[in-house]
Amino acid sequence: MKKSKDPFEIAFEEQEESPPESPVGLDENEPQTSAGPSVNLGGDFDANPIVHTTDPSTSLAVPLSVGTSGPIAKPKEDDEEEEEENMEVELGKLPSRGDPAKTAKMQEILAHFTADQMSRYESFRRSGFQKSNMKRLLSSITGSAKISIPMTIVVSGIAKMFVGEIVETAKVVMSERRESGPIRPCHIREAYRRLKVDGKIPKRSVPRLFR
Amino acid sequence: MSTGPFPKVKVGSSLPSEASLKRKRGMFQKDLHHMMYGFGDDANPLPETVALVEDIVVKYVTDIVHKAQDDATKRGKLFTEDFLFLIRKDLPKLNRCTELLSMDEEIKQARKVIWVDEEKLVSVD
C-alpha cells in the first residue's frame, strides 16, 4: 500500500477546511440522508450509516463497477491512476476528466462518509494487483518473457473489476440467504455460478473449476 | 470441493500447458485482502475465501490470456489491443481500461516534460 499523499485525501481535507458548497443547501449536521436525494448515483444510500456500514459502500461501489453511472466513475479513476503510478512525479491535481459538477458532488459525498466508510473506500481505491506479480503470472501464461507495462495495467484493471463483480454478487447472495459476517467460500461459489450464467466468465473447453 | 489447505500447484494443472506452472501460494493474498474489503467484504476476510478468490482470478486471467492469444495467433505476438478487443462487450471494463491507458500515457508525457525541465535547470546553473 502506498503511503503517499493521495489527492483523494487532499480533496477530503480541503473539504473539511472550507464549508462545502452545496447546490441544494445541505446541512452540515445531517449525514447521508441529505446527500442521498441531491446526488443521483443510481444506488441507495443507507440513511443509517452507523448500523449498516457495509451497505452504503457496497451501493456506492455497485454503480462504480457496474458502470451505470459512468461519468461519476471517471474523475475518481483519475485520482486512482495518479496515485497508482510513480509518485515521485509531483503531478499535483490532474485536470479532472469528468464533469466538475460530478467531482464536486463526489467530494460532497466523501465529506459525509463515516470513518468506516472512508476506510473501506480508501481500500477500494488503493487496492490493486502488484505489477510485478501480475507480470510474472502473465509471462508464465503466455510463455514469453517480455510483457509490456500497458498490458499489465490493462489485465490488472480487468482482474480488479472482476473481483468486484464476484464480491458484490457474493454479498447479494449473502443478503438473500440472510447471512452476515465475512464472506464464505460457498457464497463465492454461488456468485461465480451466477456470473457464469450471465456470461461474464470467459468460456473455454477446459475442465471447470467446480464440478 | 474441499476448502482445505491449498496445493502449491495451480488448480487445473492437469492441462499440459499449465502442468509446469508452479504458483507460489498466496501470490495475491495481501492485495486481495484489501480489495475484497474495499468491495464490501468484512474487514478480515476468511483466508479460505481469499484463497478461493485468488484461484478464481488466476483462472480468469489465464482464460482471457488464452482467448486473446487465440485471436492473435495470426499475428504471432500478443498486443494490449487484443485484451481490449476481448472485453469490448463489457462496457464498464472497457471504459476503465481505456481510462487507465490514457492516464498512463499522460503520466509518461508529464514525466518527460519534468525530466527535460530539470535538464534545463542544470544547464542554466
TrEMBL record, chain A:
It comes from the Eukaryota. Residues 78-88 have a biased composition (Acidic residues). Gene3D superfamilies: Histone, subunit A (1.10.20.10). Residues 109-194 form the TAFII28-like protein domain. It holds the Pfam family TAFII28. Belongs to the TAF11 family. This is TAFII28-like protein domain-containing protein. It comes from Penstemon davidsonii. The lineage of its organism: Eukaryota, Viridiplantae, Streptophyta, Embryophyta, Tracheophyta.
UniProtKB/TrEMBL annotation, chain B:
Its main location: nucleus. Transmembrane segments: none annotated. Coiled coil: none annotated. It is found in: Nucleus. Keywords: Nucleus, Transcription, Transcription regulation. Gene3D superfamilies: Histone, subunit A. The keyword Iron-sulfur does not apply. CDD domains: HFD_TAF13 (cd07978). The keyword Nucleus applies. PANTHER family: TRANSCRIPTION INITIATION FACTOR TFIID SUBUNIT 13, TRANSCRIPTION INITIATION FACTOR TFIID/SUPT3-RELATED. This is Transcription initiation factor TFIID subunit 13.
